[in-house]
C-alpha cells in the first residue's frame, strides 16, 4: 500500500518536471524566440514609430528621440530575459534535485538517463527548426567557447 503512494508521488514529480521543461521550451519557441528575431532586425519596428508620429503629430526630432529611447531600452529587456532564463534554470535544477532525493540510487540513474535522452531529443528538434544562419552563428560561438 505504501509503495503504491510512493509510485504516484514519484510519477507526479517526474511529470511535473517534464511539464516544466516542455513548458519552458514551448514558451521560448513560441513567444520569446520569435519576438527576439523580429526585434533584432531593427528595433523598434518602423511601423510603430510611423504610427506614433502620425497619431501624435511628432516632429522628426521627436521621432529620433523616441527611436533612441527604444534602442536604449532594448538592453534592459535583454537583461530581463537573461534573468528570467537564469531563474527558470535554477527552478528546474531544484526540481530535479528534489525528485532525485525521493528516488533510489538505481531510479536516480534511470531518471538521469531519461533527462539526458529528453534533452538530446529537444536539442535535435531545436537544430532541425533553427534557420541555417542562426545555426552557423551559434556553432561558431560554441567553437570559440571550446578554444578557450
Account of the 3D structure:
The protein has five helices and no strands. The N and C termini lie far apart (55 Å). The longest helix has 43 residues, at 60-102. With 148 residues, it is an all-alpha fold. It has helices at residues 2-41, 46-56, 60-102, 105-129, 132-147. Helix content is 91%, strand content 0%. It has a domain at 1-100.
Class per helix and strand makeup: mainly alpha
Beta fraction = under 5%
Helix content: over 70%
H-E order: HHHHH
The DSSP helix count reads: 5
User: What gyration radius follows from the Cα positions, in whole Å?
Assistant: 22 Å
Low-confidence blocks of residues? none
How would a crystallographer describe the biggest sheet? Answer: none
User: What is the end-to-end distance?
Assistant: 55 Å
Q: Which outline best applies?
A: elongated
In total, how many beta strands? 0
Give the mean pLDDT.
80
Task: Indicate the topology.
Blueprint: H1 2-41, H2 46-56, H3 60-102, H4 105-129, H5 132-147
Helix pairs in contact: 1-3, 2-3
Output the keywords:
148 residues; mainly alpha; 0% strand; elongated
Give a brief outline of the structure:
The chain has 148 residues and is mainly α. 91% of the residues lie in helices and 0% in strands.
